[in-house]
C-alpha cells in the first residue's frame, strides 16, 4: 500500500485522487496534520499524522502494511521566511523520518518533492541546468537543497530508493495552495471569475517556470513507475513545461474575460521570485524517463476557468 504525508496540500490532494484511481482507494492511505475536504475524506482511508513524528508514521506503516511513501508535507517559500525554524523542522525532520524508515527496510520506495527554489540569485536564469550553481537565498530553498543532498546520500550509502523532481510553480483548481510565492498564478484565476480584478504581489515582468497540476502529477507517477536502472539523478530531476510572467497570464485570461483588470503591487515575495530561474532545462528527465509535458499557458487557462466555473 501507499501512504501520502501532507495529503491535504495542493499537490497531496491531487496525488491522493490520482493514486486511488490508479491503485484502488483502499490501497492509498491519505494523512495530514489536519483533515481535508469532504471529497478527499470520503474517498478512502485517512489518518491524522504529524510528519515530524517518527513513531506515529511507523505505526501507520505497520498497521496498513505500507510499502511506498509520498512525502508531500512541507512549509513553502513565503511562509518559511516568516517561521524559519518551524520550516526547517518540518521540511527536514519529515524527510529524515521517511529516509530512515526506508534505510531500516520498513518501506521500499519514497517520493520527495524538491523545487526550483533550490536555485539562487547567482544561478544562470535561462534554461537553468540540472547541475549548476545552487546558492538558494530562501529558508525553503535551503531546506530543499539540503534535502536533495540527503536523498542522494541515503541512495548511495544505503540503497534507499528515493525519487524526486524539482517542481516549478504549480497551477491547480481542486485545492488552494498555501504560502507559496507562485500562488499568484492560482489566485488570479479565482479573482478573474469572482471579482473581475486582481492585485498581483509580483511585478508584471517576473518570468517564472510554471506547470499545470495534471502534468506535475503525471510526472510524479511516471518517475515512481520508472525502471530504477534508468534513473541517473538521485538528488532531484529538473522538471519543466512552460514559463510566463504575470502580464502573460493576465493576457491569457483576458482572451476569455476581456475586461479583467490586474494591478501589480510587489511585496516581500518579489525578492523570493527574483532569486529563482526564468526557465528550466529538463533534458535529464526527458532522457532518463521520457518526460513530456502536455499543457501550455492557454490550455491551462481554459482548464482552470472551465473547472472553476463548474465548482463555483
Ligand atoms: C512556492 N509553490 O511558491 C512553491 C514552489 C517553485 C515554487 O516551491 O514556494
TrEMBL record:
SUPFAM superfamilies: NAD(P)-binding Rossmann-fold domains. InterPro entries: Epimerase_deHydtase (IPR001509), NAD(P)-bd_dom_sf (IPR036291), NAD(P)_epim/dehydratase (IPR051225). It comes from the Bacteria. GO terms for biological process: L-threonine catabolic process. Residues 2-240 form the NAD-dependent epimerase/dehydratase domain. GO terms for molecular function: L-threonine 3-dehydrogenase activity. Pfam families: Epimerase (PF01370). PANTHER family: L-THREONINE 3-DEHYDROGENASE, L-THREONINE 3-DEHYDROGENASE, MITOCHONDRIAL. Belongs to the NAD(P)-dependent epimerase/dehydratase family. This is NAD-dependent epimerase/dehydratase family protein. It comes from Flagellimonas hymeniacidonis.
Amino acid at each position: 500500500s501507499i501512504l501520502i504525508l501532507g495529503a491535504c496540500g495542493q499537490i497531496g490532494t491531487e496525488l491522493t485522487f490520482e493514486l486511488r484511481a490508479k491503485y484502488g482507494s483502499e490501497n492509498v492511505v491519505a494523512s495530514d496534520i489536519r483533515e481535508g475536504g469532504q471529497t478527499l475524506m470520503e474517498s478512502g482511508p485517512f489518518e491524522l499524522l504529524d510528519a515530524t513524528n517518527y513513531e506515529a508514521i511507523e505505526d501507520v506503516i505497520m498497521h496498513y502494511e505500507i510499502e511506498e511513501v509520498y512525502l508531500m508535507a512541507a512549509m513553502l517559500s513565503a511562509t518559511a521566511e516568516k517561521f524559519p525554524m518551524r520550516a526547517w523542522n518540518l521540511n527536514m525532520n519529515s524527510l529524515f523520518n521517511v529516509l530512515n524508515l526506508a534505510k531500516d527496510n520498513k518501506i521500499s520506495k519514497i517520493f520527495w518533492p524538491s523545487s526550483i527554489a533550490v536555485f539562487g540569485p547567482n544561478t544562470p536564469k535561462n534554461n537553468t541546468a540540472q547541475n549548476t550553481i545552487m546558492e538558494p537565498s530562501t529558508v525553503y530553498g535551503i531546506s530543499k537543497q539540503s534535502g536533495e543532498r540527503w536523498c542522494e546520500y541515503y541512495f548511495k550509502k544505503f540503497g534507499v530508493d528515493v525519487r524526486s523532481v524539482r517542481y516549478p510553480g504549480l497551477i491547480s483548481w481542486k485545492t488552494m495552495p498555501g504560502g507559496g510565492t507562485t500562488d499568484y498564478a492560482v489566485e488570479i484565476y479565482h479573482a478573474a471569475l469572482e471579482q473581475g480584478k486582481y492585485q498581483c504581489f509580483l511585478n508584471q515582468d517576473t518570468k517564472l517556470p510554471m506547470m499545470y497540476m495534471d502534468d506535475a502529477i503525471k510526472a510524479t507517477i511516471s518517475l515512481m513507475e520508472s525502471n530504477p536502472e534508468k534513473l541517473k539523478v538521485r538528488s532531484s530531476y529538473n522538471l519543466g513545461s512552460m514559463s510566463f510572467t504575470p502580464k502573460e497570464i493576465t493576457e491569457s485570461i483576458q482572451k476569455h474575460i476581456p475586461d479583467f483588470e490586474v494591478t501589480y503591487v510587489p511585496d516581500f515575495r518579489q525578492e523570493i521570485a527574483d532569486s529563482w530561474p526564468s526557465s528550466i532545462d529538463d533534458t535529464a528527465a526527458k532522457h532518463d524517463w521520457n518526460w513530456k509535458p502536455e499543457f501550455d499557458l492557454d490550455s491551462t487557462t481554459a482548464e482552470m476557468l472551465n473547472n472553476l466555473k463548474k465548482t463555483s
